[in-house]
Each structure stands twice: as C-alpha cells, then as structure tokens.
Records
---
Amino acid sequence: MTARILDGAELARRCNDALAVRVSALAVPPSLAVVLVGADPASQIYVRNKARVAEKLGFRHQQITLPADTGELELIAAVDALNADRSVDAILVQLPLPRHLDANRVIDRIDPAKDADGCTPASVGLLHLGRPDLVACTPAGCLRLLEDAGVPLTGRDAVVVGRSNIVGRPVARLLELANCSVDHCHSRTRDLAGHVRRAEIVIAAVGVPELIRGDWLADGAVVIDVGINRGLDGKLKGDVAFAEAVPRVSMITPVPGGVGPMTIAMLMENTFRAASRRR
Ligand code: NDP
C-alpha cells in the first residue's frame, strides 16, 4: 500500500477561496488583531503567515508587537483595549508567551465573542458541552482534513497522542463528537506503540520528532501529524516517521504542508464567524 498524501496547503487554498467569496459580500471586511510578545523566530513566522493570508482575503489586520520583557498587566491592558475596540472582530494572542507571563491569565481576558483561537474558558466549555462554537484552529483543521478526505468517523477507533489544551484535548473531543471511540495518550501512557497499533485514525500532537514509528501503525490507518519539529539537519519533521509510515497507512499528512496551512485557514473562518455575528 502507498498512502494518499493529504495536501493541507491545497485544501487550505480551497477553504480560503470559498471564504473570500463570502467576505466580498460583507459591507465591512472582518478584522483580526494578532498580539505577539517577544521575538521568538517560529512565532514571528507563524504571525507573518497569518497576516499574509488575512490580507489576501481582504481582512483588516493589525499586529501588536510587544517587547519580550512586557509585564502581565501591560499585556492584559493591550488585550482589554482590543476587547473594547469596536472595529476589532477577533483577537489572537500568539503562544507561547515568554516564561514570566501566565498564558492562562492572558487568555482568560480575551472577550469570548472575539476568541479567534477558541481557547478561552467559555469556548472550551462549549466544546466540552458538545456545543462547539469558535473551536481551536489546529484541531478544527485536523477534522476538516479528515472530512475532506472522506474518512468515515462514526464508530472508528482513534488514538490522540498529546493532551495539550490547544491541540490534544480539543481534537480528542471533536473526534468523540464525530462518534469516534477515542483513546487518549500522553507522556505517562504505558506501551504507546500498542495503543497506536490498535487505532484506525491516529492524531499525533506531541512535539517529539518521529516519535511514532512506521511499524507502530496499523495497515491502512489514517494519520494526521500535527507535530512541527526542527530536526538537527535544520529540516522540519513531524511526530510520525513519515517515510516509514507511507508504505503502511492509507492516508497521511506531510510536514510541512499538512495541518499547518489548515490552522491558518481555520483562523480565518473563525474570524469571519466572529465578525458575521457581531454585525
Ligand atoms: P505540548 O508540549 O503542549 O504538549 C505535548 C503533549 O505530548 C503533552 O500532552 C505530552 O504529555 C505529550 N508527550 C510528550 N512526550 C511524549 C511521549 N514521549 N509520549 C507520549 N506523549 C508525549 O505541545 P502542543 O500540543 O502545543 O504541540 C504539539 C506539536 O504540535 C508540536 O510539535 C507543535 O509545534 C505542533 N503544533 C503544530 C501546529 C500546527 O499548526 N500544525 C499548531 C500547534 C502545535 P504530558 O501531558 O503527559 O506532558
């Protein structure tokens, strides 16, 4: 078997094109504000890519860049100002924040109506209750990739490796809402390979390059690799050993070009949704 490669860049283009048509029907385009604290090189790239797509879609876009030594009160004041700004529809605080800042206290402050990354307690609570509204962008992108590829979800055995608040937990909940039976693994899981081997759908959101080996995967499994890790050779690697996986699985996302572009596409959809509701 040779896997079908799920091209996230191509799907993101289709999602963005469809959204651009809906944006052109609005009298006032949606407005996204992105807050970046410090100069983490990866975050700078992510923020730049988001700005590029937002501008291409005709969104109004502003970036608030604050120095790495910004205090928590100052950052919260910046979030408060965006909450109060009637011209701003959606707010994203780029994570990770510098260590001295408590990300929870900052995220708690974002107006849930403007929660571009579906990460406030209100958005997470709605997802938990089975009433998803503004959903975290990366997990939403994973589900859209599965849906677009025509992968049936009801009754399927899925494993999610990783339990972060931004990826692992929400993606596990979305799979459960789509009627998968979800096995949720983490760093304390015993026999991770055994758990992965039993799954028909594998979502890897770990942050360890090529942790999941090809021979851990069931024949014909569908693999969504969220991990973005810089290898010693400077190249980007996923959490799954891609070359080993391809001969065994039926579908797999590449890194880069899989989940990453879909995260941005879902951010644009969330911004549009927040804007449409506020008008
Ligand atoms: P976190 O570090 O917040 O979470 C990692 C999770 O993986 C934790 O739950 C941890 O378990 C688990 N874990 C760590 N080591 C192991 C192991 N050896 N075996 C099993 N589980 C393990 O990472 P994120 O969720 O923020 O990100 C995960 C990856 O996804 C990263 O590579 C990141 O760069 C990427 N990412 C990609 C995005 C995209 O758009 N494509 C967006 C966001 C993230 P425990 O809870 O027990 O510590």
---
Amino acid sequence: MEKRNIKVGISNDHSAVELKNSVMKHLQEEGYEVINYGTDSTESYDYPLAATALAKGIQNKEVDLGIAICGTGVGISIACNKHKGIRACCCSEATSARLTREHNDANIICFGARIISTELANDIADTFLSTPFSNGERHKKRIAMIHEIEQ
Ligand code: RB5
C-alpha cells in the first residue's frame, strides 16, 4: 500500500514519550499520516490505557496499523492483544516485524523505550508499515483460528 494511503496510530505510556515523538516525526517525514493516541506527559500513565486508545482507533478504522510503546513493549502488547481483532507483536528487531505482517497480519507493533534505540525503533516501524500480509491460505486459516479463540 502507498504510504499516503496508510493511516498510522501511535500510542505510549509515560516511559516512551521521547521515543514516540522521534518515531512519529520520522514517520511523518516518510509521508505517513500519524495519529497520536498516547500520553505527551512523563507523569505516570498506565500502559493499558494507552493500549486501549490505540486498539479502539484500529477497531473503529480511524487508523490502519498501530505502533505501541512502553518501557519494555511487553505490558502494552499484552494489553493490546486483549482487544478483539487486535494482533499485536512485541519485538526488538526488524525481521520479526516483517514476518508478523506477512504471517500473522499483525496490526500493531510494540517495542520498548528502555530496550531499543531510536534508530532501531524507526527501522522496525518502517519495516512493519511497508510489509503487506502474504495472504497465504495457511496463514489465513491460522488467523481465523485465533479469531475463534476470541469468541
Ligand atoms: C512502566 O514503568 C513500565 O512498567 C511499563 O512501561 C512497561 O515496561 C510494562 O511492561
């Protein structure tokens, strides 16, 4: 999909304000439209709230894909995955970001502001957003099985 056709949501807790701002600026420079669902304050902000705001943005089709950042990326990914239709992957390298789009049709990528550098975060975000779902039958079947579990 063309960058201009992809709307990206980004969300974060208090530990990830700086990284969120860097990634958001990078993606805007790359031509993406980015909606900020996270906190802009370094006052304590619970990551489940940041996850829910982004998940709702995807469920309501305000955005196509999302990026969620907390200290480790783990808490926010667990919270994202509690929402229907959300397939969130927490990772610290670009290969997983590519494969989770190709195989899992993941709609949120998560990483940790206390774990990875800004350059790596940009790389992971770029890879995630530019990789399409492979549309393979075996992958579609497995994703349908995940949706069954959700019911
Ligand atoms: C907040 O201090 C921290 O617990 C949170 O950002 C995240 O790392 C949880 O998984």
